[in-house]
Amino acid sequence: MAPWLPIIAVVAALALLPLGLGSNTVLNFLSFAMIITIAAQGWNILGGYGGQFSFGHAVFFGTGAYAMALLQVRFGINPWLALPLSMALGALVGFAIGFLSFRARLRGSYFALVTLAFAELFRISANASGFTGGAAGVLVPLRLDPAQMQFADKRVAYWLALCFVAAGLALTLALARSRFGAQLVAVRENEEAARALGVDALGVKLKAITLSGAITASAGCLYTQKFLYLDANLAYGPWVSVEALLAPIIGGLGTVFGPLVGAVVLLGLGEVTKTVFANLMGGSIPGVDLVVFGVLLILCVAHAPRGVLGLAGRLLGKGRARP
Predict the structure, then answer these.
(1) What is the DSSP letter of 18?
(2) What single string gives the DSSP state of each residue in 54-100?
């Protein structure tokens, strides 16, 4: 029970947070942070635990987002049913990309670039296809009804996203303590040695990318239901891949809470930066938050390779060691 207590405490604290908030801006920020956390949790399983860095996780996010929207708009499927179907499609895309990449023994920068290429391929296809609405995108009709996964009270949407984050935390902890998790880490550390010990490296990596695709697709589904609109640049844009990748790196790569901490820090600093520059310059500066993300990445790589959680643990350890 003890290993689960931190997760229960953190989720309970996050669940209580909206009760003391009267600001829609803060609530929207928290909801969006939870969605990015879910995407980052998906990336962390493949990149953090499996060592397979993806530069194109937008391909899973966008697939989930588009499937969620199109199943409702084109086929009239209820969103509560469209959600697992969209996650299954994300998992299928993950398996297909993994099968093509890992069977060809792509790894490292080659695998990263292939995932980026797939994300661009999906983005261009969605932008050119009439079925996906082309450049005009897809608009999900507004129906404020819990049966349609649309809520008049924005706190309910936040709590729904938090449920997915909690499931991601529990899944990641279970994975880290499982035989599959140990095999995944073994493949990350030394694939040849793991294979020599009898680990099915291809099977392990395929399971990881399939699971990662499903989780990241669920983030896309929640994005669709929150904003009720998407186009190819929103769904498959590089911003998704960048934030899904940076959150675990900044929070703590290959840790249970890293994606959550990283997403909150990353998006929080981005919002503060945009606000400060808007006040100083008299208007918003597009992309200024990306500058902050770049600076954070450089600082983390140079001074905190284990992310914010690793840095905090190191500082606490030094503090305790002092007489």
Answers:
(1) G
(2) -S-THHHHHHHHHHHHHHHHTT---HHHHHHHHHHHHHHHHHHHHHH
Q: In angstroms, how far is CA 118 from the centroid of its own chain?
A: 17
- Two structure tokens written together for 158: 């936040």
Spacing of C-alpha 238 from chain mean position: 13
Contacts of residue 279, defined as CB under 8 A and 6 or more positions apart, other chains included, come to none
Kindly state the tokens that stand for 35: 């969605």
CA 305, CA 314: separation in Å to the nearest integer? 12
Q: Is the pLDDT of residue 323 over 50?
A: no
pTM of this structure: 0.93
Residue 20: CB atoms within 10 A of its CB come to 6
Buried b (16+ CB within 10 A) or exposed e, 237-269: bbbbbbbbbbbbbbbbbbbbbbbbbbbbbbbeb
CB-neighbour burial class of residue 302 (10 A; exposed 0-12, middle 13-18, buried 19+): exposed
Beta bridge partner(s), residue 183: none
Cα dist from 319 to 257, 312, 313, 315, 316, whole Å: 22, 10, 10, 6, 5
Residues 215-243 pLDDT 10s: 999 999 999 999 999 999 999 998 899 99
The per-type count for the chain, helices as H runs and strands as E runs, is: 14, 2
Phi, psi torsion values for 139, nearest 5 degrees: -115, 120
* Closest residue by Cα to residue 93 from 184, 217, 203: 217
Encode pLDDT of 167-220 as tens digits.
Answer: 999 999 999 999 999 999 999 999 999 999 899 999 999 999 999 999 999 999
Q: Give exposure, 4-19, as e/b (b: 16+ Cβ within 10 Å).
A: eeebeebbeebeeebe
Q: Give the closest residue to 270 by CA, choosing from 287, 258, 251.
A: 287
Give the Cβ contact number of residue 300 at 10 Å. Answer: 22
Structure-token pair, residue 234: 């929103």
Kindly state the tokens that stand for 38.
């879910």
Taking a C-beta distance cutoff of 8 angstroms, is the pair 70, 132 a contact? Answer: yes
Of the listed ranges 38-52, 202-216, 248-262, 306-320, the one predicted with least confidence: 306-320
